Amino acid sequence: MKKIVVLGGGESGVGTAILAKKNKYEVFVSDKGMIAEKYKKVLLHNDIFFEEGKHTENKLFRADVVMKSPGIPDKVPLVQDLLKKGIPVISEIEFAATFTKAMLIGITGSNGKTTTTMLTNHILKKAEFNVGMAGNIGDSFALQVATENYDKYVLELSSFQLDGIMDFAPHIAVITNISPDHLDRYDYKYENYIDSKFRITKNQTAEDYLIYDADDEAIENWLKNNKTKAQLFPFSLEKSFEKGAYIKDNKIIVNTNSNTFTMSIATLALQGKHNTKNAMASSMVAKLLGVRNNTLRESLEDFDSVEHRLEPVLKINGVQYINDSKATNVNAAYYALDSVRTPIVWIVGGTDKGNDYTDLLPLVREKVKAIVCLGIDNSKIIETFGNIVDFIIETAGAEEAVKVAYKVSEKGDTVLLSPACASFDLFENYEDRGRQFKDAVRQL
């Protein structure tokens, strides 16, 4: 009987454990922290052995294969020791993919991957495909492979999940864009992070497709210097293509193998340049899978936006409050600042992942009237923007940040939570941060 050790008893870990047990593996789940009650119940119900609060190394080193949760860095000594002993350490995505014959659509990128994943899933559901959505979103991929019977999966894939693949190959891969993020996990080398994103295409064949942003310098440079076997389908706001998606006369034009789809940008449910790109990427997936133009058009017109991504909360005394808690990097905050047309009171800060804020200087100079810091260490934000914004203040929680923003804003302004940082210093995760912000706004 093959032995699998699962490191981490969260969503991906417990899903992997259930799938492994179903496929006759001997399973052991080990979590250095405490396992959440809801996951513990699932493990007990399925008679899966687990430990919490420690890693018992002699149990771990007996494994034939180890599945590592994406939150655990490759650099930790335990992972390095496993690799030295020749024990493969893989991601949930790699493990689960071997147990399904479903077509896989993989979507990665520094920003826009959640929206593109949800939009693609929405289109394919509307086209009546039997489709599941997983990866970095919703129920774990492994759990769905164990318990559902989908023909297709739309997978949102983080760089950490892609780091743990060996043979995983999506039939359609999408790279929405690449900008510096998570550099603390990549030796502060941008090129390592770029290579990680491109692992999505490393096992693709000439039968497969890679959809990508042709306006993105990092993507274009990688494709100039490296090879993929996949058929390339670019999208762009600036160039046009024989095969790909582009803009002409304020319309999206999508040309795939034998088919052209056009749609006015004005009728898209999601507005803003970055969302036009997300719509282009999703449209190309849909057309490559034969979705009818009418279905595609309807889907792009009636899609609801993603929670915590430029989500309008309330208008109070003529001030619009927007929750963009999902903006955990500088590029995402850039999109948010760029999309707001009124003076901004900007709530920013959190756990810095090696951020460089200089790209934001022109936008901040032009649009931001006040900065409310929401993090434990705000020194880099104050250093970067202190001279160009008249009002900058530190706060220690969502409620305080919202109250201060309320005081300094006036009719016609926008209060924008777009942190450009991770949330783990003051919150459980970006969802918790977004919900606390929304609750505080509602209590004003």
Automatic annotation (TrEMBL):
Keywords attached to this entry: ATP-binding, Cell cycle, Cell division, Cell shape, Cell wall biogenesis/degradation, Cytoplasm, Ligase, Nucleotide-binding, Peptidoglycan synthesis
Gene Ontology MF: a single term? UDP-N-acetylmuramoylalanine-D-glutamate ligase activity
The reaction(s) annotated as catalysed by this protein in its Swiss-Prot or TrEMBL entry are: UDP-N-acetyl-alpha-D-muramoyl-L-alanine + D-glutamate + ATP = UDP-N-acetyl-alpha-D-muramoyl-L-alanyl-D-glutamate + ADP + phosphate + H(+)
Q: Where in the cell is it found?
A: Cytoplasm
Domain Mur ligase C-terminal, chain residue ranges per copy: 308-421
Where does the record place the Mur ligase central domain? 107-285
List the Pfam families hit by this protein, alphabetically.
Mur_ligase_C (PF02875), Mur_ligase_M (PF08245), MurD_N (PF21377)
Pathway where this protein functions: Cell wall biogenesis; peptidoglycan biosynthesis
Enzyme Commission code(s) on record = 6.3.2.9
Q: Which GO terms describe its biological process?
A: cell division; cell wall organization; peptidoglycan biosynthetic process; regulation of cell shape
Q: Name one GO cellular component term.
A: cytoplasm
Where, by residue number, does ATP bind?
G109, S110, N111, G112, K113, T114, T115
| Primary site of residence | cytoplasm
Q: InterPro entries of this UniProt entry?
A: Mur-like_cat_sf, Mur_ligase_C, Mur_ligase_C_dom_sf, Mur_ligase_cen, MurD
Q: Does the keyword Cytoplasm apply?
A: yes
The UniProt function text for this chain reads: Cell wall formation. Catalyzes the addition of glutamate to the nucleotide precursor UDP-N-acetylmuramoyl-L-alanine (UMA).
**NCBIfam families linked:** murD
What family is it from?
Belongs to the MurCDEF family.
Q: What is this protein called?
A: UDP-N-acetylmuramoylalanine--D-glutamate ligase
